[in-house]
Amino acid sequence: MKPFRFILYMPIALFLFSCGDSESKSRPVSEVKADAIFPHKMPDRKPDFPMSAATERMFDYPAKGIHDNELFSQFKYTQLKGFDYNNGDGTISRRDPSRPIKVNGKYYSYYTKRHTAVPPIGAKNASMTTDEIPSTDWDLCEIWYATSEDGITWEEQGVAIARPKKPQSGWRSVATPDILIWEGKYYLYYQAFSEPSGLRGDWCPVSVSYADSPDGPWKHGGDVVIPFGKKGEWDQDATHDPHPIVFNDKIYMYYKAAFNKWPDIRDQYAVGHGLVIADHPLGPFEKHPLNPVMTSGHETTYFPFREGVAALVIRDGNERETIQYAEDGVNFEIASSLSLTPIAAAPYLADAFTNTDNGKGFTWGLCHFINAGAAGKQHSIMARFDCDLSLEYDNPKVFKKSTVWHKPEVYFQQDFDQKENGTKK
Ligand code: AAL
């Protein structure tokens, strides 16, 4: 605390702490004596008198107000230049970008690219797919890469990881890559499908390839890098969105598995994120005994922050649209709640692989929009987001406002058929 604030608050604090009764929270309301009233000026420290659960909780966040919370930000979006989508006819899709890395002054990002004769016919129709007809947007894909000087205009460079020959893992599709830099080498982790996604579920293991340069050539380094759970365990048949960082001198790889879903309870589905840890990028990766370490969120986005790890948790679960923080990279707590979050966020992190114990966060990254196409022309596009989630950057006027006003059209796009009655319980 700054010295002048300490002097200012000292008398208030002494008064507040002297009239505390920590047990009174749990007493019936008639017995709770209002020893002190919450002050108009925000106290620096948690007062020791009876408070509601929400007021108590306010003191557990990184800051009591979002304007001072380094783990809160609004997000702004910019269209990328340099990618062609065949006039949006659904035959070209780019999605699930890797976190950009900067090498020799250029940013590199790796992503799922689908270029198929026709748009996807849907997971439900997976049994009707052919070698030419994709089920989902990430079926029949390859991993491509692009470079950029400014993170906005990108030049597509070509294929990084092609589909291997049948029956090798990934022969059907390789997708959703992320990158690790370790001892001067580059490692790409990605989902390797050996059946059309949707056939039995979105089932796939993770493979790894490595190279001496971010331009490749990439050498196959192994399959099923993240071990599946045994039958009956939450991650028994899916390991998605591999996301490595270097933390505590080791490789911490977070991943996602959707569970409680297939084959017949899709509407009950749950999402967990697991953590596997290794001493070397090619493994072996060992599962953390407390997995899943996160029970909300879809695509994984974890980053070194201060002495711990923070996560952007979006789309799924009770704690979706939050940032969470864990000093140990395992036991996450909510640090802020967010709106209009980037989907499949891949932030540019200068310190993702430096084993830092003072993670700085980020100010921009890539993400995707999966509904870029008109009906029957489904494809995804990638975009850039900017934000203020960095300890080295402050732009409160743009990024720390609590409300962002959207035009009425944004709301009216979420229309509702008034004849749709729902079900009475
Ligand atoms: C994504 C990711 C994984 C899923 C699919 C493609 O956004 O969660 O990659 O398998 O959707």
Gist of the model:
This protein has 425 residues and is mainly beta.
The CATH architecture designation is: 5 Propeller
β-strand amount = 25-35%
Low-confidence stretches: 1-24
- Name the ligand types: 3,6-anhydro-alpha-L-galactopyranose
What is the chain-wise order of helices and strands?
HHEEEEEEEEEEEEEEEEEEEEEHH
Any idea of the CATH topology?
Answer: Tachylectin-2, Chain A
Mean pLDDT: 92
Structural class: mainly beta
Indicate how many domains the architecture comprises: 1
Percent helix: under 10%
Q: How many strand units?
A: 21
Q: What does the radius of gyration come to? A: 24 Å
What does this structure look like?
It is a single chain. The protein has 425 residues and is mainly beta. It has one domain (76-410): Glycosyl hydrolase domain, family 43 (Tachylectin-2, Chain A, 5 Propeller), CATH 2.115.10.20. The chain contains four helices and 21 strands. The strands form four sheets. Strands 1, 15, 16, 17, 18, 19, 20 and 21 form an eight-stranded antiparallel sheet that branches. Strands 2, 3, 4, 5 and 6 form a five-stranded antiparallel sheet that branches. Strand 9 (206-211) and strand 10 form a beta hairpin. The model is unreliable at 1-24 (pLDDT under 50). Bound molecules: 3,6-anhydro-alpha-L-galactopyranose. 3,6-anhydro-alpha-L-galactopyranose binds next to strand 7 and strand 11.
